Amino acid sequence: MAKSTHHTWIANKGSIPIRESSAMNTIPGEPPDGGVKAWTQVFMGHLVLINGWGYLTSFGLFQSYYTTTFNSSQSEISWIGSVQIFLVYLVGTFSGRALDAGYYQSVMIAGLFLQILGVFMTSISSQYWQLFLAQGICKGLGDGLVFCPTVSLVATYFTKKRAIAMAGTAAGAGTGGIIFPLIAQQLLPRIGFGWTVRIMGFVILFNSIIILSIARVRLPPRRVGPLVEWNAFTEIPYTLFCIGMFLNLWAVYFAYFYISVFSKNIIDLSASTSLTILLVMNAIGIPGRLSCGLMADRLLGPVNTLTPVAFLSGILLYCWAAVNSTGSLFAFCIIYGFFAAGVQSLFPAACASLTADLKKMGVRTGMCFSVVSIACLTGPPLAGALIQRDDGGFLFAQVFGGSAFMGGSATLLAARISKNGGDLKLRM
After folding, report:
1. What is the number of H-type helices and E-type strands within the chain?
2. Are 105 and 94 in contact (CB under 8 A)?
């Protein structure tokens, strides 16, 4: 009798899917934890983060421009950015599973196309609902399709050096946070909004071509298992980690969205200088991400590093209430930008450290991303509503952000204790 013709998809050299027998579906040994191919994937992830989070963390420039141009409230405009972040994490559950199932390249093509389409459609938008659909929905869906699978893919190449590899990937957000505000600062007064955003779109298009040419999947597909692994939530450390990161990400993007508005309305700085403030906050995120990644790899572990970094971020949001001059504003942006970037870069690495089975990396990371997506959706608009409630003042929102970070860091500490007990010397 002829053997079964059942086949499964595996990656040909990690990129183009081909059909092979299920007998080939084996794990190719331990992660290399370095080497040209592995670090090339970190560079690829860096470019993905430029296109996604680099553009997203620059939303402060759009927040300021849209509020003035469309005569809308701070809370209304922030929904565009918060929906974008919400979709990044929500779609992560499904796109993360796509990596496990062997559809990484297909998902990447779709996601990169939606990113480019969303940016170019933003450039021709003239009404609020058009911006919401183009920048909030279309770009957000594209970001969600590419972000979680890429973070999960990079994690499969590393073990001991995973945190620094993830930090190198996450540093793309800082690189993009320099590129896009610089483009806006230099070109917006000269060529207008439409062509400024189109040039941003061409940057994303160029990066996308490189991404598709160098992305390589290491592990074979895993066709078994549910879309959501509900048993993960029976693990107390994983559940507490998800709750802690919900609270942390409820607060972390508040400053990125509103720092330009604060600069102009409270400190009375020019539009150009307010963009410089945002640029500084994003730029300092590069050493922030890398330094926190190095500390996690060589000394403490990702969760042990993330917990105090989140705590210090909360203290800094409380301190923001005392900022009343240009010098103190720059100081706040530099210090907060450093630690807030650390929170963002350590999050995926810390989540990955709670997953022992590398073949479940995509689905478990995606699940956590979906939990925190609600925080990202509601955080910036809630801060905007608090600013309106305070008649344009920022104190209520600053206290909210600082308190959310305090709760988040305490919950992360509880997650760490539930897994390893009270011995703080153990890495986690």
Report:
1. 17, 2
2. no
